[in-house]
Amino acid sequence: MKISEASRASGVSVRSLRFYEDRGLIVPGRYSNGYRDYCRSTLDRVHLIRSLLESGLPVRLIRELLPHLTDASDVSPELLCAEFLAEVRLYRDRLNDRIAALDTQRSALDAFLDGTP
């Protein structure tokens, strides 16, 4: 499918698809006229990229991780270097900190709302 169709099917903007390609995260095929050709597996990869970006991982780490995510199985720690895993753990810990802060804010808002008439 062409880029506009892939954008609609994936819910990701055309600009984002081009960005992912520029950063080496996806490699769509090409028609003879030069138009991009997105297959189902590329769209599946786009969804995975979005999920990883939403988790807070930077593109640099996602690019390192993607070759190890060829299917739905877990990533084997032996395949990834200790430095990479340490960075992923750091992002996970930051995410946990943000969740805790948001939970505290929500509790404060709940307390405020419970105390209002």
What are the SSEs and their pairings?
Layout (H helix, E strand, L loop, with lengths): L2 H8 L3 H9 L6 E2 L5 E2 L2 H15 L4 H7 L16 H33 L3
Antiparallel strand pairs: 1-2
Describe the structure concisely.
The protein has about 120 residues and is mainly α.
Question: What are the main properties of this structure?
Answer:
2 strands, two-stranded antiparallel sheet, Multidrug-efflux Transporter Regulator, Chain: A, Domain 2, 117 residues, 2 domains, mainly alpha
Question: Care to describe what's here?
Answer:
The chain is mainly alpha-helical and 117 residues long. The protein has two domains: 1-74, Multidrug-efflux Transporter Regulator, Chain: A, Domain 2; 81-116. The chain has five helices and two strands, in the order H-H-E-E-H-H-H. It has a two-stranded antiparallel sheet with strand order 1-2. Strand 1 and strand 2 (36-37) form a beta hairpin. The longest helix is centred in the C-terminal third of the chain and has 33 residues, at 82-114.
- Computed over alpha carbons, the radius of gyration is 19 Å
- Kindly state the number of beta strands: 2
Describe the global form: flat
Please identify the oligomeric state: single chain
> In angstroms, what separates the terminal alpha carbons?
56 Å
Spatial strand order of the main sheet: 1-2
CATH architecture heading of the largest domain: Orthogonal Bundle
Low-confidence stretches at least 5 residues in length (pLDDT < 50)?
none
Secondary-structure-derived class: mainly alpha
Query: SSE order in H/E notation?
Result: HHEEHHH
Biggest sheet details: 2 strands, antiparallel
Protein name: MerR family transcriptional regulator
Keywords: DNA-binding, Repressor, Transcription, Transcription regulation
Pfam families: MerR_1
GO molecular function: DNA binding; DNA-binding transcription factor activity
